[in-house]
Amino acid sequence: MSFLVVKLVSQRIALGLMLLLAASALIFVGTQMLPGDVAQTILGQTATPEALANLRAELGLNEPALSRYFSWLGNALQGDLGTALTNGKDIAESLSGRLGNTLFLAACAAVVSIPLAIILGLLAVRFRNRWPDKMISAVTLATISVPEFILGYLVMYLVAVKLRWLPSVSIVRPEMDFLDRIEAIAMPVIVLTFVVLAHMMRMTRAAILNVMESAYIETAELKGLSAFRVIASHAMPNAIAPIVNVVMLNLAYLIVGVVVVEVVFVYPGMGQYLVDHVSKRDVPVVQAAGLIFAAVYIVLNTTADIIAILANPRLRHPK
Amino acid sequence: MSRIPTSALIGLVFTSAYFLAALFAPLIAPYELGAIVGDVWEPMSSEHWLGTDGIGRDLLSRMIHGGRTTIFVASAATILSFTLGSTLALTAVVVGGWVDMLLSRFIDLIMSIPTLIFSLVVLSVVPVTLPVLILVMGLLDTTRVYRLARAVAQDVNVMDYVEAARLRGEGTRWIVFREILPNTLSPLVAELGLRFIFMVLFVSTLSFLGLGIQPPAADWGGIVKENKEGIVYGIPAALVPAFAIASLAISVNLVADWVLSRTTSLKGGR
User: Fold this and answer.
1) Of A126-130, A177-181, B67-71, B167-171, which range is least confident?
2) Residue B267: which pLDDT band, with cuts at 50, 70 and 90?
3) Residue B137 and residue B114: Cα distance in Å, rounded?
4) Distance CA B125, CA A191 (A)
5) Three-point CA angle A31, A299, B140, nearest 5°
6) Domain residue ranges of chain A, discontinuous segments joined by +
7) B231 or A40: whose pLDDT is higher?
8) What would the DSSP string read from start to end of A132-163?
9) CATH of B76-268, one of 3.40.50.1110, 3.30.1230.20, 3.40.50.2000, 1.10.3720.10
10) CB pairs under 8 A between A and B
């Protein structure tokens, strides 16, 4: 590992940490910089002055914003996310189980979609500009034009109502074993796979096509190797870095898709928890959940960049 | 005018049909938006072409009125994000220096939080009204327009005729609006279609989550939400707005693809 790589990677990590800090400030400011009074918005116009004063004290609104931000951030770093306004429960406690559920769902979707996307991307390159490629890009166009929740209801209507293969909601309880869990999340996994598959496949196709332009690919073709051999053993190794990057970016995208899909299938994860508490105007919960989503997103994006640095042979072996 | 390919023609026909329906919604909708005119979840009939919804309102009328709201909010937010995003980007490029640096880093920061998550955070504390919704959606999407416009404008900014205008002593405003804007317009117009689709999907998603258009007003995402219980009983009412959203998005996409391929040469193959 050369000095240059270490320097670039540590720069990227430092940038990621700075982004995280700035994102936390942005989330905090997003809930503060409003024209009105947060307490008034939460309680509505009919609130009594006493109730308003109580809520202001509870939210710490009587202190200056800067000191509130630092105490919120300090507590969050120690794992104390405060208590929910609506039920007075500890937020970190309610979140941990749900975070696990969400990550389980996202991981299952990733396990299904990543190999599928890469194989389909390879097929699209192998049969470039012929019917498999055209069909794949038509399906891609269709899936990026449809929002997640609609895909969700389509799958639910077909699989649960018409075919009656699965129950229509994904209820997961702690005592369920692994196989029951898989069955429960089958439909959301199908939907999430559709959501990210199109992007991932398109970008994989572009990455491999990019490599296919190189001179050594022409050499391999002129040697008389079969088309699949050329793609699999010559183009693929050089396309791995961009593909890994694609996968990481789509995992970050998956994290957002999860929010909507969880609501559709009533899956007890982070996304449903966040949406629930946005409509209840439970600001501390929204801040905490927003912070976690942003953190996961930033970490995945930073990882994508680091992998791109590490996979670049020109940086690994500088002249 | 070169020949319009079939796919783009289909896209154009559907897109204009949706926009005309939105424009003349009160004239063509057979019933009022909130009028209860039939039984709960009636199937399709000659009286109610798409059947009725969960409390007996005519679904076709709700779709037409709802489409008006969806298309209006999406268009308004797109116009906002485009005007703001491209003006900021062109100014950043022309002025350069720390203005460009500061703006670009700030946009990077906003883009480091997923759009949906950030909008949920903001919508948790503001009263959800139509102007607020348009403002939040438009401002968040400004980041995407800014990125593209800045990239395109940077290429134009180094052209000789821009240099010539500078030497002539033209001001920043002239250079932005008379020299750079006309030459970045074609890729931006192609992007306009894609941003509009994104806005349609965005407002539908927010309404579906119950955080967008508030009842009694209706939009397509909201109609999915109102009728989602029917799905479990095999009533496809919720799939009607789903179909509308998807077909609008696909047809705008087809048009945007065509515009993009027509302007590729102008953009230097970006």
Assistant:
1) A177-181
2) very low
3) 13
4) 31
5) 40
6) 100-273
7) B231
8) HHHHHHHHHHHHHTS-HHHHHHHHIIIIIIIS
9) 1.10.3720.10
10) 141
Contacts of B97 (CB under 8 A, 6+ apart): none
Q: What is the pLDDT of residues A24-38, one digit of tens each?
A: 888 888 777 655 566
Any chain B CB within 8 A of the CB of A278?
yes
| Top mean-pLDDT range of A224-238, A242-256, B45-59, B145-159 | B145-159
pTM of the model: 0.83
- pLDDT at residue B46 tops 80: no
Q: Which of residues 168-187 of A touch B (CB under 8 A)?
A: 168
Domain residue extents for chain B: 76-268
- A187 and A241 in contact (C-beta within 8 Å)? no
Query: Does A294 contact B242 at a Cβ distance shorter than 8 Å?
Result: no
Distance from C-alpha of B111 to C-alpha of B85, rounded to nearest angstrom: 13
ipTM: 0.79
pLDDT grade for B265, boundaries at 50, 70 and 90:
very low
Rounded distance between C-alpha atoms, residue B199 and residue B73, angstroms = 8
Interchain contact, B246 vs A283, CB within 8 Å = no
Per-window interface: A 137-156 vs B, CB < 8 A: 141-142, 144-150, 153-154, 156
According to DSSP, residue B219 is labeled -
Which residues from A are below 8 Å from B211, CB to CB?
275, 278-279
DSSP state of B36: B
Dist CA B96 CA B90 (whole Å): 10
In this predicted model, what pLDDT tens digit does every residue of B183-221 receive, in sequence order? 887 778 778 888 888 899 899 989 888 888 887 888 888
Residues in A touching B234 (Cβ below 8 Å): 157, 161-162
Distance in angstroms (rounded) separating the CA atoms of residues A61 and A32? 10
The dihedral formed by the CA atoms of A244, A249, A252 and A256, expressed in degrees to the nearest 10: -140
Question: Given A149, A162, A279, which is nearest B208 (Cβ)?
Answer: A149
Residue B229 structure tokens: 């219980």
B30: number of CA atoms within 13 Å, CB side?
Answer: 13
| A51 touches B: beta carbon within 8 Å | no
User: How far, rounded to the nearest angstrom, does the alpha carbon of residue B222 sit from its chain's CA centroid?
Assistant: 17
Phi, psi of B36, deg, nearest 5: -90, 115
φ, ψ of residue A282 in degrees (nearest 5): -90, 85
Q: Which residues of B touch A277 (CB under 8 A)?
A: 124
CATH 1.10.3720.10 assigned to domain A100-273? The reply is yes
DSSP secondary structure string for all residues of A262-306: HHHTT--SHHHHHHHHHHTT-HHHHHHHHHHHHHHHHHHHHHHHH
